[in-house]
Amino acid sequence: MNPELKLTADECTGCGICADVCSFDAILMTDKMAFPLFIPEQCTLCLTCAEECPFEAIEIKEVSLKEKVS
Ligand code: SF4
Ligand code: SF4
């Protein structure tokens, strides 16, 4: 099981704060995107994004390898 960030889309407003505060370029967000895209390979799980998200839209979820493959 690998921990991975998950977005709660219902809570996310697309404000882009999470992408701004990530020091590891692990969140992609452009003007044309409604929601941020997480890049797990870049993420150190520092959780700054989750702490800074005003809407508590980011959570950590355990992801099994089987789930990742499917
Ligand atoms: S900071 Fe929170 S609400 Fe804003 S884009 Fe990121 S996840 Fe969505
Ligand atoms: S947990 Fe840290 S490294 Fe990962 S996306 Fe959030 S701010 Fe970036």
General description of the model:
- With 70 residues, the chain is α+β, with helices and mostly antiparallel strands.
- A hairpin with an 8-residue loop joins strand 2 (27-28) and strand 3 (37-38).
- Helices cover 21% and strands 23% of the residues.
- The strands form two sheets. A two-stranded antiparallel sheet has the order 1-4. Strands 2-3 form a two-stranded antiparallel sheet.
- It contains three helices and four strands; from the N terminus they run E-H-E-E-H-E-H.
- It has a single domain (2-69), classed as Alpha-Beta Plaits (2-Layer Sandwich), CATH 3.30.70.
- It has helices at 17-21, 48-52, 65-69; strands at residues 2-7, 27-28, 37-38, 58-63.
- The radius of gyration is 12 Å and the shape is globular.
- The chain starts with a strand and ends with a helix.
- The structure holds iron/sulfur cluster (2 copies).
- The site of one iron/sulfur cluster (SF4) has 13 residues, from helix 1.
Order of helices and strands: EHEEHEH
Which fold name fills CATH's third level, the topology? Alpha-Beta Plaits
| Total helical elements | 3
Taking Cα atoms only, what radius of gyration do you get, to the nearest Å?
12 Å
> Strand count, sense and closure of the main sheet?
2 strands, antiparallel
SS strand fraction: 15-25%
CATH architecture: 2-Layer Sandwich
Spatially, the strands of the biggest sheet line up as 1-4
- Please, what is the oligomeric state? single chain
Envelope shape: globular
Bound molecules: iron/sulfur cluster
Helix content: 10-25%
Please indicate the count of domains.
1
- Uncertain regions spanning at least 5 consecutive residues: none
